[in-house]
Amino acid sequence: MLDNGWDVGRSVRRLVFRGPLRCNLCGSGVRFRSVTGELGETFAKYGFPYSLDDFETLNHRQYRCPVCGSADRDRLYGLYVDRFLPPDRVRRVLDFAPSPSLSRYLRGRADLDYRTADLMMAGVDDVVDITHMPNYADGSFEFFICSHVLEHVSDDALALKELYRVLTPGGRGIVMTPIAPEGSFDEDPSVVDESERWRRFAQGDHVRLYDRSTLCARIRNSGFEVTALDSRTFGQETFAEHAIAENSVLYVVEKPA
Question: What are phi and psi for residue 256, nearest 5 degrees?
Answer without folding.
Answer: -55, 140
